[in-house]
Specification:
- The complex is a heterodimer.
- Chain A is mostly helical.
- Chain A has a single domain, classed as MetI-like (MetI-like fold).
- Helices cover about 80% and strands about 0% of the residues of chain A.
- In chain A, helix 2 crosses helix 5 and helix 5 packs across helix 7.
- Chain B is α/β, with parallel strands linked by helices.
- Chain B is globular and about 55 Å long.
- The longest helix of chain B has 16 residues.
- Chain B has a 6-stranded mixed β-sheet with strand order 6-7-8-3-9-10, sandwiched between helices.
- In chain B, helix 4 runs parallel beside helix 6 and helix 6 packs parallel to helix 7.
- The chains are: A mainly alpha, B alpha/beta.
- At the A-B interface, helix 6 and helix 7 of A face helix 3, strand 6, helix 4 and helix 6 of B.
Chain lengths: ~220, ~260
């Protein structure tokens, strides 16, 4: 082994790498927000009285969960412009992450809703609340609490999936590090550092979720 | 309704059920139910498990749909349209066996939710109402706690207060003491007795025969989805007419 470690290109590229971390973080947070909206909305439609809506949601979930994310993001970036929808890499990445995470979130949140006893719905209805009010005011929070650990790991996965957005050159950690690596040929140093950064980002994400959970779900249960 | 006798019967009946029938698939859960409850009347509904008593009271606020007959509450015909269901639910409070308090809301918030969201009351008014009713069920000091921090008996009293916050004209109780530890049954029954004394119209599904003796105007005995016998408590307990009633009373009171 006569390979000498040389972190100089990494140190010189550090400001770039750090802002790229922010890019990754931003992609992940935006993707999660969109995924949460799709997840909750999907669960509502999935339990709709209208059969067509239920089937649309089931079809959407199956389509997204059984195709590769890389193909999904390529589809939005390269195929949709042919239909007149042209998006920049970053919005494309956010939408792809949101759609992909949303499909998984639908199934997870649906499990949470099903875990809530029927009596909660009945008590709400008996008090004169409408079904939609009961869902929003009574069912949703305990349901989210029940599945929050699963949702957290799904969203950490979503955070790591942002690296695939480098395939369409979205501004995030992997694409920036690829550039530094191809300029310097310092593969080991660059990817060693990037690995550590992803680890820190994941850890921060988990802390963020734990913090949110401690605030939002701070009610005792038996 | 143009028929004079029907109009009159509906006028003084708080709840009237006429020829009500319900099926779960091929299984008939309710069979030709006819009940008329006057304002202020207390009815105890009893019978063996699976006799349809819970199903019956759950039809009154349309938690269960019925397929035949007619139910009127306070003169409102309970059809299957959302509008009449809403109107009836605002007049009818319900207390469940499993309490069904909302775990993520404090006792006070549990009581304020429906008055604010279903009746459109302001926060201050809803809170005033809630505190007053929590006082009435003697649990005002627990207002800021969460349901999981209360005993079963306390939770059920909160559930009663929560239902009363809607100022219902009728209260339905679906086995309110069946899930309670024995030492907590009394505090809930006492609350229900107080409510009865204040003149609330009540239908209680319960096996608490002491409660039936003390407050019921009539006891209705059901079996296999039908009303078998109906009598004032003194008569019901001392002189049951039907064999099935005698058998049931023998089992529940331990007399053989």
């Amino acid at each position: 082994m006569n390979y000498t470690l040389d972190f100089t290109p990494v140190i010189e590229g550090m400001p770039n790498l750090l802002t790229a971390c922010l890019g990754t973080f931003m992609l992940a947070i935006s993707g999660m927000l969109l995924a949460t909206v799709i997840g909750i909305g999907g669960v509502v439609l999935r339990t709709s009285k209208i059969k067509l809506l239920r089937w649309l949601v089931i079809g959407f979930v199956e389509l997204i969960r059984n195709t590769p994310f890389l193909v999904q993001i390529f589809f939005i970036y390269f195929a949709l412009p042919l239909a007149g929808i042209r998006l920049d890499p970053t919005p494309t990445a956010i939408i792809a992450l949101g759609i992909n995470g949303g499909a998984y979130a639908i199934e997870i949140i649906r499990g949470g809703v099903q875990s809530i006893s029927k009596g909660q719905m009945e008590a709400g209805l008996a008090l004169g609340l409408h079904k939609a009010q009961v869902f929003r005011l009574i069912i949703l929070k305990p349901a989210l609490r029940a599945i929050f650990p699963s949702l957290t790991s799904q969203f950490v996965l979503l955070t790591l999936t942002t690296s695939i957005a480098s395939a369409i050159s979205a501004y995030e950690l992997t694409s920036v590090s690829q550039r530094i690596e191809s300029d310097s040929f310092r593969s080991f140093e660059v990817y060693f550092t990037v690995t550590a950064f992803y680890l820190v980002i994941s850890w921060l994400m988990m802390r963020l979720f734990a913090f949110f959970s401690a605030r939002y779900f701070a009610y005792p249960v038996k | 309704m143009s028929d004079i006798s029907t109009t009159k019967a509906t006028a003084d009946a708080m709840i009237s059920m006429t020829g009500v029938a319900k099926w779960y698939g091929a299984f008939q859960a309710l069979n030709d139910i006819n009940i008329s409850v006057r304002k202020g009347e207390k009815i105890v509904l009893c019978g063996p498990s699976g006799s349809g008593k819970s199903t019956l009271i759950r039809c009154i606020n349309h938690l269960e749909a019925y397929q035949q007959g007619e139910i009127r509450v306070g003169g409102i015909l309970l059809g299957h349209q959302a509008k009449s269901i809403d109107a009836v639910r605002r007049e009818v409070g319900m207390v469940f066996q499993q309490f069904n308090l909302f775990p993520h809301l404090t006792v006070l918030q549990n009581c304020m939710l429906a008055p604010m969201r279903a009746l459109g009351l302001g926060k201050a008014e809803a809170e005033g109402r809630a505190r007053q009713l929590l006082e009435r069920v003697k649990i005002a000091e627990q207002a800021e706690k969460y349901p999981a921090q209360l005993s079963g008996g306390q939770q059920q009293r909160v559930a009663i207060a929560r239902a009363l916050c809607m100022r219902p004209q009728v209260m339905l109780f679906d086995e309110p003491t069946s899930a309670l530890d024995p030492e907590m049954v009394k505090e809930v029954l006492d609350t229900m007795i107080d409510l009865a004394r204040e003149g609330m119209t009540m239908i209680c599904v319960t096996h608490e025969m002491g409660f039936a003796r003390q407050v019921a105007d009539r006891v209705i005995f059901m079996a296999s989805g039908a009303i078998v016998e109906e009598a004032p408590p003194a008569e019901f307990f001392s002189d049951p007419k039907h064999e099935r009633t005698r058998k049931f009373l023998g089992e529940i009171l331990g007399r053989h």
